Amino acid sequence: MRDHLYINGQWVRPDLGGSFTTFNPATEEPLSEVPSATEEDIDHAVRAARKAFDRGWGQTRGAERAEWLDGLADELERNQADLARLEVQDNGKPLPEAQWDVSDAIGCFRYYANLAKELDGRQDQVVELPDERFRTRLRFEPVGVAGQIIPWNYPLLMAAWKVAPALAAGATCVLKPSELTPLSALELAAAADAIGLPAGVLNIVPGLGAEAGAPLSHHPGVDKLAFTGSVPTGSRIMSAAAQDIKNVSLELGGKSAFIVFDDSDVESAVEWILFGIFWNQGQVCSATSRLMVQEGIAPRLIERLVEATRSITIGNGMDPGVLLGPLISQEQYEKVNTFVNKGRSSSAKLLAGGARPAGLDCGWFLEPVIFDEPAEDALIWREEIFGPVLCVKRFKTEADAIRLANDSRFGLAGAVMSGDPQRATRVANQMRAGIIWVNCSQPTFTQAPWGGMKQSGIGRELGVWGLDNYLEVKQLTEYVSEEPWGWYLK
Ligand code: NAD
Asked: Which protein residue has the closest C-alpha to ligand 1 atom 30?
């Protein structure tokens, strides 16, 4: 049934019967033919989600929703190994990374199951008032129907980050996965189907951005838009939300800085720098793609970094030992290569990579790239490339490093490494980004807030903040005094 949309608890054919093809990025061969939702299907899905919300899901107790979320986690866990392999075929990432993602997605459902239970205990909290004639209680109510649009870099995990907190809050969902990687989201629909999740609570509608994403973002029946993707699309989503004042949260792109001071250990710095830029082929919103190295350590560190980068095993994500898979698509491959060519013809020096790896004649593979000393206004230094491309600059003083790091329109993440904990903290506190890693880069936990400053987005996902994304806080204020109010009627 995976060649159907999942709407109102049923597998249905798209209204116009269309479909699109997905490809295995490691072989460039067609992988699947996926149903393509259009405006009519989106309308059916939003109506189903509305009905499910109004007819019960919105009023369920958190404890009950927690059982459904745990049920989804159990079902995903049963298929964990297959799901990881599917992610590799669909996205290209190395199998151990896909296994990590699937396990994180399951953990995300379990985490929000717990928060759903706790939500019951948060209801009717009393707010301290300066006037004892009144009593104010708080109710946390679900936002309604959530329209959720996600990218292709972490297909199942991004779906979990959206769906788990929304269902925990009591919202219902219409989720549009990326047209490049829709398969694991359809497996999530299958999990919902298998556990008998009430019809309409979770609707999964693969489709193209313009044909399915745009109608979802404009639909008047959607109360909340939650989007993860690029800045230009995020801007369109925000405009759509503005039309009827929808609640909107945006998780967008980045060009994150990694500052390494002279007193760092070279091996440890190189390990985290590689992890920060080459994990998931650099197709990571928080990738630390701008490296700033203090002058004293720079020669040793860069030499070791180049050597380690050249020895990364590249190949099909299913092959053991592979650490770097193909880019997601022909289009992404061309986009990244365009940046690499711009870098080559700039004043920056190419230190490593940039060619097709030997022996890999098909698949969208690229040797991991390091550019040295791009100009501060170079495109490769300023724009999000979303591929395995690292740019390095040297700095003299702490103030230089902070200025360079903050000189960006993005503010998603950043990292700082130093043997001096006080300096690391001082610098971390001055970096303008939503996530700062100290002496590491990228580790992400469901319990901690995720999101960016500046053009990297609005709002935070994960943790309690992720749940709050889908809640409306309501105050109930009661007059409890025995005395008459006595304003008009003295
Ligand atoms: P994208 O903006 O091209 O697409 C994202 C989603 O939006 C897809 O599902 C797409 O079909 C849909 N879409 C496209 N046009 C649309 C429209 N007009 N209306 C509604 N929906 C539309 O981004 P992408 O290439 O899939 O993902 C890469 C981007 O995502 C990068 O910029 C990356 O930094 C960002 N990202 C951010 C985070 C984060 O947490 N901040 C996480 C992952 C990815």
From this structure: 229
pTM over 0.85: yes
The minimum-distance atom of ligand 1 relative to the CA of 285 is 34
- Which protein residue's CA is at the shortest distance from atom 22 of ligand 1? 209
Residue 64: φ, ψ to 5°: -70, -45
Is 222 in contact with 50 (CB distance < 8 Å)? no
Instruction: Give the separation between CA 410 and CA 27, rounded to whole angstroms.
Output: 34
Q: Which of 140, 185, 211, 160 is nearest to 5 (CA)?
A: 185
The model's pLDDT over 163-193, given as tens digits with 9 standing for 90+, comes to 999 999 999 999 999 999 999 999 999 999 9
Q: Which residue has the tokens 């190949």?
A: 315
| CA–CA gap between residue 296 and residue 261 (Å, rounded) | 8
Q: What is the pLDDT of residues 275-310, one digit of tens each?
A: 999 999 999 999 999 999 999 999 999 999 999 999
Does the CB atom of residue 327 touch ligand 1 within 6 A? no
Contact 63, 40 (CB under 8 A): no
Q: Which of 102, 245, 223 is nearest to 169 (CA)?
A: 223
- Three-state DSSP at 150 gives coil
Six-digit token pair at 175? 């989720």
Six token digits for residue 116: 């759903």
What the block records as the tokens of 75 is 């079902």
The region that residue 282 occupies, defined by phi over 0 for left and psi between -120 and 50 for alpha, beta otherwise, is left
